Amino acid sequence: MVGSVVDVSLMDPCEKVEALPREFDPKEISCPITSEANGVVEENGKREIVLGRNVHTMCFTIDEPEADDEITGEKEAYMASVLARYRKSLVERTKHHLGYPYNLDFDYGALGQLQHFSINNLGDPFIESNYGVHSRQFEVGVLDWFARLWELEKDEYWGYITNCGTEGNLHGILVGREVFPDGILYASKESHYSVFKAARMYRMECVKVGTLISGEIDCADFADKLQLNKDKPAIINANIGTTVKGAVDDLDTVIKTLQENGFTDRFYIHCDGALFGLMMPFVKRAPKVTFKKPIGSVSVSGHKFVGCPMPCGVQITRLQHINALSRNVEYLASRDATIMGSRNGHAPIFLWYTLNRKRI
């Protein structure tokens, strides 16, 4: 293989691949550590993270060439071999992708022509920045589609394509905190960990609410918790599919509970629809998530029900709320209203492409 380059895209994943040299083989692990507690050991009440399977001895090292060296055929062949082995492991692991609710049935071959471009949607999707290589026209098209899905007019919504469902939760809860700076965050104990991460990041007071056996929020317990904090507004995370049980919080009962306990016009509801938010609108007699109800924001994952080769998501909120969060950034010639600064410009194109191809 000296002096040659292997075209990995043409390789059969079942084909026998030349073994890597021992020093580069990730299977050669010295003194592997058992992962009996998933890498977490607790002793004398102290929690310690222990390196388990993801130790440095499993990584593919980087062997930089000398300053006066050119990349040789041997180096190209080595890298091609590494990638071929990695691709083979991806094929095998994807066959047994049980436990994660991802849609892996997609084909984005037509978008391969765009991979050579650095597409960055930094700034507000609705305000052109001074970075010209972007995909805002695709992003806003996707956002318009989701706004229609959740019954919010074009001139009444704001949103953006996120990196994942977690970022959607971080943004939705942040908007709620900016609308009600002294608000208390309420979330059922079955809520995604990112909700409680948001509370820590934003230094928000957070109240965990009990759940029914189904996993949905217990509104009787919610009412009791509200009565303990009647002087402060409520910021609520409503689950549209919990992580473990797939429970859907009863949005109508949550709203009724707020109103009956004196919180009319003093609440903000963020709907975490990462799991079922894109599925429920197309299921007959399923509970309805719509901005015709007094909710503040909805977020979903784009790589689950729709299917996408990279993690992504969608966050939609009411336009009237975003002014409390946004700040102008002069050097971008745009507005900062997102969690991330630079944003993946390829993800909106993938979502636009697949939504145009699906009959839903």
UniProtKB/TrEMBL annotation:
GO terms for molecular function: carboxy-lyase activity; pyridoxal phosphate binding. It catalyses: L-serine + H(+) = ethanolamine + CO2. The keyword Lyase applies. Its cofactor is pyridoxal 5'-phosphate. PROSITE patterns: DDC_GAD_HDC_YDC. The keyword Ribonucleoprotein does not apply. GO terms for biological process: carboxylic acid metabolic process. Keywords: Decarboxylase, Lyase, Pyridoxal phosphate. InterPro entries: Group_II_Decarboxylase, PyrdxlP-dep_de-COase, PyrdxlP-dep_Trfase, PyrdxlP-dep_Trfase_major, Pyridoxal-P_BS. It holds the Pfam family Pyridoxal_deC. The modification N6-(pyridoxal phosphate)lysine is found at K304. Belongs to the group II decarboxylase family. PANTHER family: PTHR46101, SERINE DECARBOXYLASE (PTHR46101:SF2). This is Histidine decarboxylase.
